[in-house]
Amino acid sequence: MKKIFTVLGVVAVAAFANAQLMYEPFNFTGSVAGQNGWATHSGSTPGQVTAATGNLSFTGLAASTGNSTSVSSSNTEDINKGFTAQTSGTIYYSALVSAQNTTGTAANTATGDYFLHFGTYSTGTNPQLSLFQARVYVRKGVGTDTVNFGILNNSGGTAAPTFVATDFPINQTVFLVVKYDMATNTASLFVNSTPGSTEPTTASATNSTGTTVAPAVIDYFCIRQGGSTGNFQIDEIRVGTTYAQVAPTSASLAVSDLNKTKSNFVKNTFVKNDEITFGADAKDVKVYTLTGQLVKTASVKANGTLNIADLAEGNYMVTGTVNNQAVSQKILKN
């Protein structure tokens, strides 16, 4: 079975070599956690991060679809969404953000507070989201009703974010692209860079002050509501292994469409209730252990489920066909 899984892995890599790891247009409303693969990992009141009608857009970036989400420093819920684990190289994410006001936003100091980042799920008896990398920070700008963005690579030591030189008015859409180099444990932030295939030669800010060792795996994207992050609208989240994948133009929508299909495959990549929930009709669904053993087969309907109560806790690979496209998704049963 290991040989079969190896072949499957080659096919999956070929299918997604030029594709984003994640695309989230928020094609739903209400609590984000529990929909399209999102889950709560901390906070005393789940369901505070919500999606509602309305979009953000940026000149040159592929047209926005779906809705958007919002966060507030008065809330506590932090949420995450998994994607295919990355073990080396560089990994990027992007998002459109707009500060609604500066109420609750950290003062213009050296620290600020962070609201977007990568994460790694630990293994063991009590797995939990940990090792937060490539954190986007925000603080009040120098001018009235402005905000300032910064980047931090990792925690540890005397870690402190590096902020960009420019302040941005509230209620203005800002395009953020973050690059994290796993080999050098360095994070870079590009603010309002030009979408397309060419990565800017110079980042708006770069940081490597955190001394915590870079993780062996990065496999989650997170939205955080910190006590001083303020109030933000967030839209069009993308994760990829190249700048072009997270800053696509309209001409590269074919790649985005493939990832919309993937994002609608498994809705709950962190399985807590013994059932995998699917966001689209899927044929030839198969569940494999990470050693290549086939443990489940099925065909499912949109919003249908597959019971995996008989499987041990741990990571699995789920494959299938959605809209005649081969898709795969890693899940964690807890």
Automatic annotation (TrEMBL):
Source lineage: Bacteria, Pseudomonadati, Bacteroidota, Flavobacteriia, Flavobacteriales
Enumerate the UniProt keywords alphabetically: Signal
Give the originating organism.
Chryseobacterium terrae
Name used for this protein in its record: T9SS type A sorting domain-containing protein
Which N-terminal residues, if any, form the signal peptide?
Answer: 1-19
Q: Cross-referenced InterPro entries, in alphabetical order?
A: Secre_tail
Q: Which NCBIfam families match?
A: Por_Secre_tail
